Amino acid sequence: MSDPRPFDAPVGGGLLHAAQWGADDAPALLAVHGVTSHHLAWAHVAAALPEWRVVAPDLRGRGGSADLPGPWGMARHADDVVAVLDHLGLDRVPIVGHSMGAFVAAAAAHRHPDRISRVILVDGGLPLELPPGVEASQVDGLLGPAIARLTMTFASRDDYRAFWRGHPAFATEPPADLDAYADYDLTGTAPALRPRPAVEAVRTDARELYGDAVVIESLAALDGAILLTAPRGLQDETPGLYPPAALERWRSRLPGLIIEEVADVNHYTIVMGERGAAAVAEVVRR
Prior knowledge:
This protein is α/β, with parallel strands linked by helices.
């Protein structure tokens, strides 16, 4: 697995950090990570696409872009990732987004149709369903362990690596580069290391995933798009983010959206595991 080449792109408020794999003259793919993640989530997909130039930004409020100021939200992220295309001199490219990154991908295609050629959603992009009696403003409860992690401190890098190795999503398929993923996610100094994502950015963005106006409007860009789903969720639980009944409703509402399930993966390993990455790569080539 080759190392990504880092770079910074000017956006409103400063520089957005990003990285890319592959040759500069290869066909480009814009890859957008999830709500608390960063560009290294795409390392396995990039390895499965050696003939492609995979360009992956750290979204505003995450990774190397953690200190960029708000406002956040899908529209802002969509404009930011298109600014990355501007910086690299890329005209019109396909986009793949995982989890919240799928919502950003849809928003980018809707707001900048002249810059996005095709849309691939990976276990995200369709408005999530709120549990009965719960409002989107109660986002900490909805994100559960993901938000809790952002408020934790770790005495050492080894402690944070152990946290990720013990995560239920990776119990049966720990990625070979999981330690590198964990290391990049940390900031501060021992014994008070903490995850990089800005908590308020995550909270703000997560509220939109349950049917914010920008998300609803972006559904218009999904005609002809492909959605890959995971049968298991963030904690390796069943069902996954989109239960079968919910997917049937979306098939009726968006007949132009192609929905395919990737067998034997969860919400994380659909991009961070070899089986999931191979499935994503196959769709990109197709």
